[in-house]
What does this fold into?
Amino acid sequence: MQRVYQLTLDDPDWTPERLQNKLGLTGEQVSQALGTMAELGLLEPCPPAPSGMAARAAEAAVVSLMREQKNALAVRAAELQRTSAALDTLASQFLSLRNPRPGDTRVDVVVGEAEVTSLLRDATSVAYHEVQIVNMDVQGRDYDPDFCRSWHRRLLGNGIAVRGVYRSSMARSMQSCNRLRALQRDGVEIRLTPTAPIGIMTFDHFLTVAEVPSLNGDMAVLAIHGHALTGLFRQIFEHCWTMSAALETGPVESPAGEMLTEQQKTVVRMLAAGMKDETIARNLGISQRTLRRLITELMDLLESTSRFQAGVRATARGWVPAADSDPDPIPATDPGTDPVPAAELL
It folds into this structure.
């Protein structure tokens, strides 16, 4: 190769054929030598030259290689810095979420749609075995709808089991039932129960997310970290799972008034009496956000898109009792009473 390199320096008009003839080498030998020279940076493109290449001084090749290596090292150093920062974030925020020290228990109050969704997104990304759900509908949330529609697919795609127990009333609404069946088709195991005293999600043994009454009108949950309490909530889930029934695959029938829960019946009567949302929530001892959810469930049961339409359908089905036959009349002196037509009750 040294002879080939020296001749390319001495003869700027060299060609592979001339190198073969002058040095008595085969075409393969010359090709291999030129290839090695190119790798070492001893050749550079030169369109005017007969061969299209020109030889470079060894000193220039050394400087060029050193510059390339320096640039490559700078790029690599930047990548290592970004990786180090990412590892610090994972170690400080997520590993503690998934693997708390034995005996560690922490309960955080998370307020707001954005913050709750961020919590669920982070927990979804580090789950590794099973997610259990009792009456929490992530799909029905408006914040970050792309995540809310696909969170379960991310889990299932990673080989993580997902089981959910939901109130039977959801299966009596076309919209809610279709949502449950879509989850079921995707691979989520679904069962139904007449009552669900609490809305929770457990992520393996490291986190439980539990719904609580809204704070100042904002959505709120408890983020319960730790094996001990999460293990307790997992036992609650297993009890609900054992006592629940499979989601039927047949058509959804229109709901009947007698299928309403007592709380839903009370809400219907109070709305029919003209009570405002704030007063109803106070009388029932629930937040206005919970009341709005109950009203939404009633609208789902009636397959209505507005309160007015739901009111018309509730009246037609006899869900709104006549004033003289109301078994639980609302006191007329209630300061929150504001009579409205029954058709506008929802």
